[in-house]
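Box S1 | Example of a co-folding query
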Amino acid sequence: MVNGQRVAVFTIEGRAYAIGDRCPHRGGPLSRGTVEQAPGSGPAVRCPIHGWLFDLETGRCLNQPAASVPVCDVPRETV
Ligand code: FES
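Box S1 (continued) | Returned holo structure for FE2/S2 (inorganic) cluster
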C-alpha cells in the first residue's frame, strides 16, 4: 500500500518496478498479471482479466493508448 493505494511490485533481472495494482479498465489485479517483454518497449504486465498490457516503466497501456496506471519510484538499493 502507498498513500492508501494498492501497488503491484515486480522484480525483473535485478530491478524493481512498482505500479498501481488496479487496472483502469475494470479493476483487474495487475499483481496477478503475467510479465512479458513487449515489442518496442521494456517489460510489461498483462492484466489477467481482459489482457490490457501495461509498460512497467511508464505505466502506459500499450494496447489502449488513453489508459495508464500510476508508477512509483523504487530505489535501486531496495532490490
Ligand atoms: S480489467 Fe484489466 S483489461 Fe479488463
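The mean pLDDT is 93. The two ends are 18 Å apart (CA to CA).
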